């Protein structure tokens, strides 16, 4: 019986040692769990910060998208205005061509009028010369007639 008691004591001792080891492991497990909880809290805090940053980034991206939409709208308006400018330039080119054509026609008419006026002026000058000669002849005849009248009157 003593042997049995020694054996039971030995088993109880082993059980106590196993329990001490189990308690030590449990303490380490609890410490590790506390460290894990701390790490999880830190990770959660970092995730909150990251989420906040992501929200800010998303807000900035929305603002950037809005600006890009406005810029695109302005670019479309600019493109439309450039197209209108090109059309207006084409119209202006056509009008300038018509103006040059009309100017050329007007120059021809003015040149023709100048030629006609010079011709008329020459004709008028030649007629004026003829009339002067006639007046000179008539004037000479009047002078002779006056002299004849004076001569007759003096007799």
What does this structure look like?
The protein has 155 residues and is mostly helical. It has one helix and no strands. The chain has one helix at 2-154. The radius of gyration is 64 Å and the shape is rod-shaped. The model has no long low-confidence stretch (mean pLDDT 95). Residues 12-116 form a coiled coil. Keywords: Coiled coil.
Layout of secondary structure:
Elements: H1 2-154
SSE class: mainly alpha
Q: What is the terminal separation in angstroms?
A: 217 Å
The pLDDT mean sits at: 95
Q: With helices defined by DSSP (H or I, 4 residues minimum), what is the helix count?
A: 1
Overall shape: rod-shaped
Annotation, overall tally of beta strands: 0
Approximate helicity band: over 70%
Coiled coil: 12-116
Keywords: Coiled coil
């Amino acid at each position: 019986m003593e042997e049995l008691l020694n054996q039971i004591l030995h088993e109880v001792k082993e059980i106590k040692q196993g329990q001490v080891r189990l308690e030590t492991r449990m303490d380490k497990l609890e410490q590790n769990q506390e460290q894990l909880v701390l790490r999880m809290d830190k990770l959660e805090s970092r995730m909150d910060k990251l989420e906040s940053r992501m929200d800010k980034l998303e807000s900035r991206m929305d603002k950037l998208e809005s600006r890009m939409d406005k810029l695109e709208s302005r670019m479309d308006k600019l493109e439309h205005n450039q197209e209108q400018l090109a059309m207006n330039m084409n119209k202006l080119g056509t009008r300038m061509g018509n103006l040059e054509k009309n100017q050329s026609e007007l120059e021809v008419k003015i040149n023709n009028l100048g030629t006609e006026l010079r011709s008329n002026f020459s004709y008028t000058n030649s007629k004026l010369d003829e009339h002067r000669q006639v007046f000179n002849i008539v004037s000479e005849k009047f002078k002779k007639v006056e002299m004849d009248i004076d001569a007759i009157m003096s007799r």
